[in-house]
Here is the input.
Amino acid sequence: MKSFIDLFRRKRSYAPPDRTVYAIGDIHGRKDLLERLVPLIKDHAGHSDYELVFLGDYIDRGPDSAGVVDYLIHSDALSGIDCTYLKGNHEATLLEFLDAPEVGASWSTYGGFETLLSYGVQDVRLSKDEAAWAKTAKALSEKLPASHLAFYRSLSSFAVRGDYFFVHAGIDPDKAIDQQTDAEFLWIRDAFLNDARQLDYMIVHGHTPQSEPSRDKRRIGLDTGAYQTGVLTAAAISPAGVEFISTR
Here is the structure.
């Protein structure tokens, strides 16, 4: 088996020759948009072989985080499709909250409040009271379906297809790839986005909202702020090139 480092020594960028990879950006609780995007992808794929790679941040901010996860796990629309689910910083924070409720005070300021409500945790107080957050974490653990918790715990940090590297936020160009951790994969922004150095892989990521999907010689960005804009975006990556598909 090739090592992680060996995978990054290749210079020529190529997509898997036998199928199309559809990467899907940050959903953030917008089940309605996901239900619209999946049929668009199916229509685009036609009878060709394809797979889906979800870039994380399924939850928070939007109105139906629980519904999004339930769709990803149980929907017949995804039955028989090869799907890879990556972890976003928001899923990582939910798991951290269950073990360390004190993070609830910060989590609630960037979307956790909406996720709690979607799971039926109604008595949520936006405060720094650790005892109150411990009570809220207990309520969430009781209401969270076992299948959802298993889903959150099963999420991968990255995926490699051909010379495309799929990750939630990006990578640190100053670090060797085998030295990077979820701190980079889930949270990095400026150090990755503002760097101009050529990378050995084309990085396909979400995490940083933008009005339109972006593509250059280093990266493909797919977070189009779905929870605010109503635009959920995917990239179809094949030997023929890259094409964007959205709910716009």
